[in-house]
Amino acid sequence: MDSLTQITLGAAVGEAVAGREAGKNAPLWGAFFGTLPDLDVLANPFLTEAQSLLWHRGPSHSLLLGAVLTPLLALALARIHDDGPSWRRWVVLVGSVLFTHIGLDCLTTYGTQIFWPFTRTPVIIGSIFIIDPLYTIPLAAGLLIGLRWPSTARARRVSNYVGLAISSGYLLITLINKAHVESVFQASLQSQGPPAERVFTKPTAFNNLLWTAIAEGEDGFYVGFYSLLDEDRAVDFRSVPKRHDQLGNAADSPFVDRLRWFSRGYFIVRETGNGRLTIQDLRFGRSDLGLTRDGTYIFTFVLDRNDEGQITGFQQERPEVRVRWPLLRRFVARIGGRPLRLNTTSDLPRRNTSVNGSIASQ
To answer: Cα(285)–Cα(323) distance, rounded to whole angstroms?
Structure first.
C-alpha cells in the first residue's frame, strides 16, 4: 500500500497494542515501524533497474527477517523507554506493526516476497488497489479522533478500535468482491469462447467496484472490465497480442527473465522504432485508466542493447499520466455501471460478443 496508509496503520496498531502504557510513544513508534519495510527504496540509487525489482518488497518484507528483528528492535525500545512498557509489550507492538504491514502489501498487485530467502516467488492476492481511500480514511479518522483524549481514556481506545474494525472489515469485503468478480469473468470467458490458460483480476484505481481481468491465451491476452454495479454480467473483452516472438534471441536473456518474473508472465512486447524493444506489464494498467486506446502501460521497460545486439539491461520508461476531467468523468461513469465505448484507433483489435456468444475480432 501507499506510505501514508502504512504509516496510519502502524500508528493505529501501535496505539491499540501499547497506547495505555506508552502514551504518545505507541502511535509514534507504530508509525515509524509501519513505514520501515518500505525504506528499502533508499537503496535504489545504488542498484540497477533489474536489481531494484528484486530488492523492493524483498528482504525487508520477509516473515523470517521480521521475526528476527522484532525482539531486537523491542529490546532497543525497552532501553530507550526504561520507564515505559515491558520488553514483551514492545515485542507485541513491533511484531504486530511489521506483520500487518507485510500482510496488507500481500493484498495488492505488486507482489511481496514474504518467504525470502527460501523463495523469491511473491505473494499477490490482488484484492485492493495500492491507494484506496475507503480503507485509509476510517483508519485515520478513528486514530486521530482517539488521540484527542488522554492515553488512559476509554474513549481513546474505543475510537481507535472502531477505525481498525471498519478498515479491517473493508479488507474482508475486498476479498469477497474478488471472489465474486472472478466467477463473473470466468463465466464470461467460458460463454464467449476464448481459451484462457489463466486469469488475473484486480481492482482499478482508488476503488473496489470496478475490476479488470487479464486472461492469457496462446497468442495474446483478453482484457475486460466489470463493475459490481453493472446490470449485465457479460464482459466485453479486448484482445491484446503478446508478440513475444519479437524478442528473438533476447527471450533467453537474464534481463528478460527478470521482467518475466516480475510481471508473472502478464506482459506484451512492442517495438517502438529505432530497433527499440519494450516489455509492458499489463497488471498495473495504463496512463488512460484503460478507457481509451491511446494510453501507455504504466510499467513499461525499454531493453538496452550493446553494439553486438546483446541485451545489457533495461530502463523503466514512465509515461506522463494526465487524468483530465473528461477521462475522470468516464472513469466514474464506468464505475457506476455505464458501458464503455471505445471509439479511438489502436493496434489492438477489439473483440466483441457476436450473435452466437463467441468472441469475434473486428
So the answer is: 13
Using DSSP, state whether 286 is helix, strand or coil: strand
Burial of 92 (0-12, 13-18, 19+ CB in 10 A): middle
The three grid cell numbers given for residue 84, joined into one nine-digit string: 515505559
DSSP calls for 112-157: B-TTTTT--PPB----S-SS-HHHHHHHHHHHHHHTTS-TT-HHHH
DSSP 312-327: EEEEEE-------HHH
Report yes or no: 147 and 156 within 8 Å, Cβ to Cβ.
yes
How many residues are present in the chain? 362
Beta-strand pair 210-216/198-203: antiparallel
Please report which helix (H) or strand (E) contains residue 215, including its range: strand 210-216
Q: Please, what is the angle between helix 133-146 and helix 154-192, to 10°?
A: 180
Q: For residue 241, what are the β-bridge partners? A: 220
Q: Is residue 167 within 8 Å of residue 139, measured between CB atoms?
A: yes
Phi, psi of 307 (to 5 degrees): -65, -25
- Give the DSSP letter of residue 123: B
pLDDT in tens, 114-139: 999 999 999 999 999 999 999 999 99
pLDDT band at 342 (very low <50, low <70, confident <90, very high): low
Q: Do residues 331 and 289 lie in contact, with contact meaning Cβ atoms separated by under 8 Å?
A: yes
Report CA-CA distances (Å) from 255 to 48, 49, 220, 261.
11, 10, 22, 10
Distance CA 324, CA 330 (A): 10
